[in-house]
């Protein structure tokens, strides 16, 4: 057989302008299904994500994790195929599958070779129609998940993230982990998963695709799937209601810790970040984006208190979170928190030096083109803009919008997000830290098992 | 290096836009348009033009790593990696990071047993200055004493984070120390604590002078560049840097005999760590890069442990009464040797001794029953998709070419590598499997109930 010869970059297109990238996003309607396609002819491979506008907020009370496992256990079995057969089918074709559930949306993503796209979509349709979650498999899979949650104590960073989520969002409907808790997982049964899948698959859906034109042949397969759409009530807007835990440090002791994980931040309501996405993007980049960010320079480079530090201000549809993430050795945990407090206060009070501002501006604007290097990453961006109801023209004008933010607006943005007396502070580490932490704020000690 | 886990990009194919190609591994030939240049001082440069976006990636592969160290200076390669960001004669302290990130770029580095690799992704307008920075720090690294001491603390914190506080890290580090005891691979890449505390600036400087020279580097640039113009820039900036007279002697002094594992009979090591359920690794000495058997062992690793349809997952995890909550297998190939391993975490109540006995006996049977045409085709299909995925970025291609050139002396070695994988059949994989299970193994565990 004659071999197919691939010639690297020989047919690469010339550089495209920002607006051309945005214009390359095609929107279509396949029956009731909204479709977004980014053409990418580089390789005979594709990625698609079927996004349901329904997430973990729809879990039944006490059954947190219901949506997560309804998608995660899709291959546990159907009337026609058992778990081994389903796993073997997808893995034989080299397909990588991923399910993701947040409180606001859920998705199934598939990456595979174009030649197999139809047969893979056919099997996904079969799963959504006929997954029956055999009780033996579900019991065994859930037992595995429980083991995973229990062993989170061995990963202090992951535990700190879990604690911080629950504490920072404690006054909102989003505090429970989408993947459930030990208690809720114990209650999940076959029927719970089947009923959840039934409602999920009828929720409004969008299919995001990237790949060559050939991959659009899946339209015919999807037409046979018979997916229906039942409109859902929009999520209610959140009101501003800070966590009751602000102004104190929540210390979660873990055994044999010679370092402590530090998380601080708060949740954001929709009205706070409306129209400020780019400003908050700038703030998180300035504080924690890269080795030259303010936090890394102050905490690691100048003082050697940590190996890494980061900041983020991310939003979904109706809520978001701003946070700072770092760690330090036991002897310097309190000092690190104090240093962060002083940095944030100084920015709020004295503003941002022109040099620092220009540096971060160059960082964000200069790095803009990298967003388009991988079509999958570009596709994710498009999805987030859709979720937030933002037109893609905002993505095209991102460099100009960033340039229009002044140093004082940037400093004000830091103040808005990280006003010290509104932060929830979590420390996961040795119980012996209590004494040093008490010198900087009241300390509440909580057993880590409460967060599992 | 685990080829199947780290395999990175190769190709771009516009030729398949209007048809669905037959894309089996054996049906594909890849041709990358690489410009290769070797300067008089021994610097090898590989360049690939890709004008799609106004960006490029630069990789510097220094042939120095853990295996080049000796007692007293363990961790020197990694420590030096940190110090390479701390300034040189022209680009002083802080300037390197600020120059790169301030223009929208990103940079990082990693150190292995064999290599230290620096990489940058930048807008193409920054090519000249980036080459200038790389030349400056290769020739004139500062190693300022106060920065050196600050970075010593950072490295010690990194060690805690990656190894001391991570049961997985603890397990991996000790596994390497035991399997390669008495060989140059037996030292930890991050370094022993006493050495990290005592190593002097002078020792690190002498190490730098020996290994950081143009005749010990492969430079790879992929992106929006013009090869002829780039070549002139490189000649101008690097051409004057002297080669190291001693580096080849250092490499020659590491003879194949020095890397032979001393593991001649089964061994067990039990570590105390903060994990409620035991984690384990079962390891067997394996083969170096390019050894014919290493390719078949790569495939064996995937057949046994990749995905939910793999033998280990089906037998020990996805069953009614699981023995493990997670399990994996892989072949870690180094320049001069290798190690094949299985690893995972047991479920509550399963005894380590019982599990070890079961796995050892069933592995021998699996060599006969599990290695089928279907299983091998599945691995090859996954491999092909991984190849395509890796092709998406300039950085992926640069990394791929650099690794091949560094380990095989010729970037084109990928062609042979693909052909070898394509030709491997059931008999080849069965043969290495049967050989492997007869070899002495190391069984290493970490658990909170193990004694110190």
Quick structural summary:
The complex is a heterodimer of chains A (452) and B (452). Chain A is an alpha+beta fold. Chain A has helices spanning 18-23, 66-72, 83-92, 117-130, 135-150, 156-168, 182-187, 190-201, 218-225, 270-273, 277-288, 294-301, 333-350, 354-366, 375-387, 393-396, 398-403, 407-417, 434-438, and strands at residues 4-7, 25-30, 33-39, 45-52, 96-101, 106-113, 205-211, 249-253, 259-269, 309-315, 319-329, 424-429, 443-445.
Descriptive account of the structure:
The complex is a heterodimer of chains A (452) and B (452). With 452 residues, chain A is of the alpha+beta class. In chain A, helix 12 packs antiparallel against helix 13. The N and C termini of chain A lie far apart (56 Å). In chain A, the strands form two sheets. Chain A has a six-stranded mixed beta sheet with strand order 2-3-7-4-6-5, sandwiched between helices. A six-stranded mixed beta sheet of chain A has the order 10-11-9-12-8-13, sandwiched between helices. Helix content of chain A is 41%, strand content 20%. The radius of gyration of chain A is 24 Å and the shape is globular. Chain A has two domains: 206 residues, Metalloenzyme, LuxS/M16 peptidase-like (Cytochrome Bc1 Complex, Chain A, domain 1); 203 residues, 2-Layer Sandwich (Cytochrome Bc1 Complex, Chain A, domain 1). With 452 residues, chain B is α+β, with helices and mostly antiparallel strands. Chain B has a six-stranded mixed beta sheet with strand order 2-3-7-4-6-5, with helices on both faces. The radius of gyration of chain B is 23 Å and the shape is globular. The N terminus of chain B is likely disordered. Chains A and B meet through strand 1, helix 3, strand 6, helix 5 and strand 11 of A and strand 1, helix 3, strand 6, helix 5 and helix 14 of B.
